[in-house]
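Repro case for the chain-ordering regression, as requested:
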Amino acid sequence: MRTMIKNIKLGEVNEVAGFVENIRNKKTMCFIVLKDQSSKLQLTIEKEKHPDLIDTLDKITIDSVISAKGLIMESEYVKLNGMEMYPDEIKIESVAEPSPIVAPKGEETNIDLRLDYRWIDLRTDKNLLMFKVQSYFINKAREFLNERDFIEIHTPKLIGAESESGAGVFKVDYFDRNAYLAQSPQFYKQMAMAAGFERIYESGPVFRAEKFASRKHATEFTGFDLEFSYIKSYKDVMKMEEEMLEYALRKTSEKYKDEIKKVYDIDLVVPTLPFPVMDLHDVYDELEKRYGYKVSESEKGDLTTEGERLVAKLSKDMFNHEFLFITGYSKENRAFYHMRDEKGVPCGYDLIWKGCEITTGAQREHRYEILKAQAKEKGLDEDVKFYLDFFKYGCPPHGGFGIGVDRITMLIFNEGIKDSMFLFRGPDRLNP
Amino acid sequence: MRTMIKNIKLGEVNEVAGFVENIRNKKTMCFIVLKDQSSKLQLTIEKEKHPDLIDTLDKITIDSVISAKGLIMESEYVKLNGMEMYPDEIKIESVAEPSPIVAPKGEETNIDLRLDYRWIDLRTDKNLLMFKVQSYFINKAREFLNERDFIEIHTPKLIGAESESGAGVFKVDYFDRNAYLAQSPQFYKQMAMAAGFERIYESGPVFRAEKFASRKHATEFTGFDLEFSYIKSYKDVMKMEEEMLEYALRKTSEKYKDEIKKVYDIDLVVPTLPFPVMDLHDVYDELEKRYGYKVSESEKGDLTTEGERLVAKLSKDMFNHEFLFITGYSKENRAFYHMRDEKGVPCGYDLIWKGCEITTGAQREHRYEILKAQAKEKGLDEDVKFYLDFFKYGCPPHGGFGIGVDRITMLIFNEGIKDSMFLFRGPDRLNP
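-- result from build under test --
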């Protein structure tokens, strides 16, 4: 049986397997750095003692996959966990051709070439760690929700009608008619509320048929969405979100803080509770007062791109916090299904992390007549008829939010979106 | 703050909220059965003591959503957990129109009408329990894998080329070209192996553009797929699968066995380890010997539909087991990427549960030249060129399997596929 490198034992004969990260094949000695998902190990071969291995060693290239069996010894010369292996057996599982994405010394391989060969690009320590952390973070968020009686559901991505207007939607040839790809699970999350599933979440792909020029967008990404019933206010939604994020970041920090520091030189900060909250108008007042950033009155119902960026600094300066909840967006800038207060202000918020919007959350309008009127006001009442029906036969008050898994990943590691997805999809990118 | 019914306390004033399952509004008394995600509670109102509530009570219809606040009292007449509430306050959150899917007494509503109003259909005790169990089962499977160093990944569903031949694929208008919807994450799971992600899993939608007439199929369903490296044989894959299923079923049984028995009258059986294994040829021999089921020699490379059904009985009779691994399928009936042994027999298996195939698993061919030849043999080498490239630059030996979340659900509860999905999708069904 093969042992992961993190589990090898000094003084024992172990079998290990992995990619050859480096090989120095000298006249009398051969040194191989072997890398698996868990760690790295040096293999040291004295050729005089192992003439039987020489042919094999000559075939091994960088990135080849080998397995090796031998005694694990202490080594003061080897930095890798102070141990090395003296293999008696080496087997080549797969010989690698030279990597097509190695840049000349001092240069960086451009992102498009790296994405063409993403599976090779993903082999770096940074990328492996990134996806370990992403996986852990999401599972900890699920754990938080499971403990609070949330149910995970799987809603259809193939839908019969173009749903939420605004964002572009992909059309699918569906036998003798058209289907569309869901831009979010929003309507079906709310259907679950009408079904008496009080607390649900879903993680799954969402699709946006939009050409864009931003480091934040993709045509397909992973959404993590939740919705829950019997809230009294959108403040209950904010509370659920901040507690979930604090929990998932705290657990992630406990396990990966040191490794993130070592590999990325980034300090993962566990946010304090509660997160600071500001009204959008106060945000603009402070941005002007503190940093001289001014926008026209007509722009003040939404957060501008530059305003969003500046919020990173604002939240740091005012609250010493990486996060900021912003409330008080104008109804023109919010979806028709957001509940509004008696003044017509949407009962919802955006959450900004490090100057990047990661969430829109809200209490939803669950009263059929009001919801229908709000849809009509946006010219949508016919398009969303099937959705309005969810509210005719009894529906609890409810609210929820969605976060982008890839965007969270991007912000933890300060990387662009293309580098933060297992496999990026954009208008010009469908491969591999 | 509202309390879930399962958490109410005798002698305390609690606030509860839920759907009205039943209401008997008499001259002097009113009885309401209130249902939330956790349980049910009777509300008892003596009208003489609460004239202020009479108007509200008169507006309440079945399926309306209300909240109520009052003292929790013991009750020997009420079967629901021996408690009832005497509300002082009742608030209507949402009035329900009469349900459009109530069948005349003694009749059953047909499935298509129920699916048209799936959110009402989902309100039954059976359906709520089904999705609680599904959610719990999948999270326990994830837990099993997380403890074994698996990483969860999210692979793209929009792909540039029609991938695995055979099953039908949906075409998507993708800006000025076509994209296709992934029929499985197979190729990208393997890409992760080439990336040195040794152990990965994914749960997400898969799409099949097929017209069918079976109680097992849908055009979109939820796949749970995993893949892992450095296996010695497909037997390592079988072992991982049986241990994962045993763990998830055992944990699910511990939490939900009694409730499943009560609501469905079904005994959830935790399978013993290891699962029985038979070669396909031996299966046919036994089916003939025991039950007189005979097929022609040319059919013996695959399991017939009737054979699959009979395997439920065979596995019970021979091994007293609900599961059976079957090996020894012919290469004509397996995908080109399955590794083959020295005799040309694919190194893989199907897993049959209760007479229904839930998994195809295998060791994959990771050696570029052999894989390419096997693709060519099936006439696929040009179509899968992008996939073959994954194996050129070093790739560990690996294998994996996929299970259908909806099929597992269907088999736990002995329901059809349309009743086992949150929202079924078929060639004629894209709504709601």
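Ordering looks correct now. The longest helix of chain B spans residues 234-264.
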